[in-house]
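Sample entry copied in:
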Amino acid sequence: MNILITICARGGSKGIPRKNIKEIAGKPLIYYSLNLAEKLKKERPSDIIDIVLSTDSDEIKEVVRRFQIEDLYLEYIRPAKLATDKSGKLDAIIDVRDHMEKNKNIIYDYVLDLDVSSPLRTIEDLKKAFAIIISDDEAFNIFSVNVAHKNPYFNMVEKLDNGYYSLCKKGNFLTRQSAPDVYEMNASFYIYNKTFFKQKLKSVITEKSLIYEMDHICFDLDNPIDFDFMEYLIENNKLGIEL
């Protein structure tokens, strides 16, 4: 099986300056994604697995080179048009895939994207997620989720055309527990079947998407305080998982 692992890390970050290389628990944030990619490659020695760092930043490349794992990954310069605040992540992934398939004369069965900003995932998470999508030939992709803290059937509201507010989704439920299960995407990882790209889909949420429900905490880093919270959890062994 041929697998491409993409790690997309642009240099600009307004919410948290230099986020991708900011240290957390003594290591640059991007280290956790590259380290997990390396683990997966070792776990699947019979597969062809290429790891690609897609970035527009020389500083990020220099930080990553200090890990001394250049033989495990390739560097790809992300085009400037795909490195702006308005650029979509999916477009960057497609760009890397197209480049790699053309230059290596290879077709990837699956593309795994590891999001740098959401590193709380394990090798077991990836192995289980791959098993799920491989067992479903029709699935376009699978992405990681957690059970949502708020349920749109029960305690989430949105503004109506008349200016008043009502539940996001309608249903006759007296308790939150009786409402349908809903999940929140935690942005940690996405696995795409090659059929996803053949269909030229423009959204990670499709009519044939699967989810992988994590049984542990996972969240992405949007604000500076998120860094402090995650660092505390890692340094004090509060996660219950091995990164």
In short: The first helix runs from residue 29 to 43. The radius of gyration is 19 Å. DSSP finds six helices and eleven strands in the chain. Residues 143 and 190 are 4 Å apart (CA to CA).
